[in-house]
């Protein structure tokens, strides 16, 4: 005789007792863990809480590992991978993201940082291209003033403007050195031009002799050398307490627009940027 204490019943044979365990609603068994729960709810909670089970309580489905479970969550449920949390519906996930993460409610996208979200909000996705290039014959417009300066520095403007022209003009206009470093200007002079040859091949890739970064092709290396990467950082933030320096005016403008140091909160610094860039005929920070 076999006695079931939970049900207070005797069974004459082991097989009949085992049949009872399988069929009775009073016995809910986890075969993997060899545990018997009095209710289905208790067994389900065990599946959810136990680190030995990868279980979706919403679908009553088991998975081979946690990666398969999270892939299922991604495909079938309103799932926040950052918090490893499943929500009842998309609206619940939307509200969670809005309150807990750096989240664009219009695009329903989560960003890793506040600055990344701000950059997204300042992109052409959310901002019109309302900053026109002032040079005759160009006709292009941009979402920000820094994007316009980058356009000029890149040499892609039909006017023929390039980074050297922008730098030279700033040198002439910024006579009080509010955004340029006079010590760097003395040593910088005109930009030094570097050109790599096939002698830059190190046996595996083309190597920059200045920073030792490697490239798959000679043209990629020369594009790197033509960039501002190895030019002196002649620009500086006009906020006295910031001390951040830059190789290009566009990088300085991006820094100002990002408001990382709060430079635009200071009227004097804002007037410096306004005045200089207004004379360039390019941008104003009004």
From TrEMBL:
Annotated source species: Paxillus rubicundulus Ve08.2h10
InterPro entries per UniProt: Znf_C2H2_jaz, Znf_C2H2_sf, Znf_C2H2_type
Record lineage: Eukaryota, Fungi, Dikarya, Basidiomycota, Agaricomycotina
SUPFAM superfamilies, alphabetized: beta-beta-alpha zinc fingers
Keyword annotations of the record: Metal-binding, Repeat, Zinc, Zinc-finger
Residue ranges occupied by any C2H2-type domain in the UniProt entry: 102-131, 206-230
Pfam families tied to this protein: zf-C2H2 (PF00096), zf-C2H2_jaz (PF12171), zf-met (PF12874)
Protein name as catalogued: C2H2-type domain-containing protein
Claim: Protease is one of the keywords in the record: no
Position of the signal peptide: none
A single GO molecular function term of this UniProt record: zinc ion binding
GO-annotated cellular components: nucleus
Organism domain of life: Eukaryota
